[in-house]
Write a structure and sequence with these properties.
It is found in: Cytoplasm. The chain has 317 residues and is an alpha/beta fold. It has 13 helices and 9 strands. The structure holds phosphoric acid mono(formamide)ester and norvaline (NVA).
Amino acid sequence: MSTSIRHYLQFKDLGAEEYAHLFERAAFIKRKFKAVEKYQPFADPDRTLAMIFEKASTRTRVSFEAGMYQMGGSVVHLTTGDSQLGRAEPIEDSARVISRMVDLVMIRTFEQAKIERFAAHSRVPVINGLTNEFHPCQILADLFTLVEYRPAPSGKPLDAIRGKVVAWVGDGNNMANTWLQAAELLGFTVHVSTPGGYEVDPVLAGISNRGCYKVFKDPREACRGADLVTTDVWTSMGFEAENEVRRQAFAQWCVDEAMMQLAKPDALFMHCLPAHRGEEVAAEVIDGPQSVVWDEAENRMHAQKALMEYLLLGRVA
Ligand code: CP
Ligand code: NVA
């Protein structure tokens, strides 16, 4: 295995300056897309992305697949059910084989340990398309969206992020963990409010500086003064058996208009989607003027194109 391979398994796998580069490249790639101008850095030679889904997906699949084709590459799509992964072929063997045939692998699976094992035996870069613990591609897109909507006077992407307050209302899940990693790395604060028993765990989240987040019992207090309010489903994929228990535990953790009123007047609302109106978010918030969820979803593709470009080609001017 080559030691020069860069994987993207957690948000902290890249440094702050690399994120600044990715946000600039994502903006360039998005401008090209909007102008209907081709940008195909992978066309010569062809590059192939293997996508492995062990959980359902709409945005992650479409954004990676469309993005790769738009950049001139190709895609192979595998699921647990239609590959030998579902018949207990060891993940290490799958990694050895798949990574001999493609240039890049994206995996959506359950335990983070599984993607780490795949990456350890892969000859090519591996991207985390969501695990139980992390969802780094989503936060990459969310921060790119924040930079687009609230650019810094300096024009520098990281200046638009540094010092901001992000309110996280809901489950201490893969999204919450990734927000904490981003806050530690890029210098902003997350106000976290979860029901008892669903708190974030800084060790699991992989952060060492607990100053990057503050815990609030009352979700309204978490939203007070926030630049961005964000939430996610009460029950993540893989936890469906807890659905009813969670529905009761999370009843007070619905982002509603009253919570948005406590945030800054120009606060944005984000949700990684899929959303459940009337559960984690009120319809008037997700469908209201502060919501940027559709741009956030579209930005998955632009941000991930920048990520794939970086992992395959390095810094492109
Ligand atoms: N936000 C997100 O990852 O969506 P999908 O589950 O549809 O891929
Ligand atoms: N936390 C959610 C995110 C879905 C994109 C889940 O893991 O199901």
